[in-house]
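Give me the fold.
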Amino acid sequence: MDGTPKPGEKPLRQSERREQILLELRLRPHVRISEMADRFGVSTETVRRDMDRLSEDGLIERAHGGATANRSYPDYHQRSRDRLEEREAIGRSAADLVQPGDSVMIDSGSTTVQLARFLALAETPCTVVTNSLTVAMTMGQSAAAEVILCPGDYLPSEAAVVGTDTIEYLARHCVDRCMIGASGVTQDGITEAVRGFAAVKRAMLAGSEASHLLVDNGKFGHCGLSQVGRLADLSSIVTDSVPDPDMTGALDAGGVDLVIAE
């Protein structure tokens, strides 16, 4: 296949091809590069680049000769019902780290929503850049906050946007601090299980002077699908109780402050 469109057919744009790949993976667990190349009338190398980019953005998993859908993970609404008291305490403590006038990136998650809630209640003057519709709506209740919602592909299960547009938009900003969650934290670093979220978190870490991870103690020792970054990429971890000695030692070695929420 030489990448030339079939006679009379208008070639799909890059974004349209990638949307079709994502749509196909919602209908079945695996698609092949050769199959998509035939359908789009482009070269296999073009589809391979499309899949590689979708994989980098955390939207699919690359497999031999093609791609598979990401593994399932409890959605935002399911997670928001678990360990509510712990997440409220973490959100309250994390809100104290935000100084008046700060610019802050906040990613999507059940704990970061609690942070947004306490920032709004405190009427902390700040500028918030977020990929979460729930965080945006929560912060929007504060007259002191300026809220900037990222563009991107809407992920209904998380009420958030992800994808290439989101990453590129975040890359154009530099903020005082970011506040992110994670599916798991080990001595090797931070991981994420929700499709598309790892790339968003990496972009937020890259664009922030200080970075704070908000996780309950149950996340320590667990490993998600996609790597977000190293412990040393963080300024602090805000959690509800002290992790085990090995984890505490790794945080000390990485220069990461441990903030225990009361």
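The first helix runs from residue 14 to 27.
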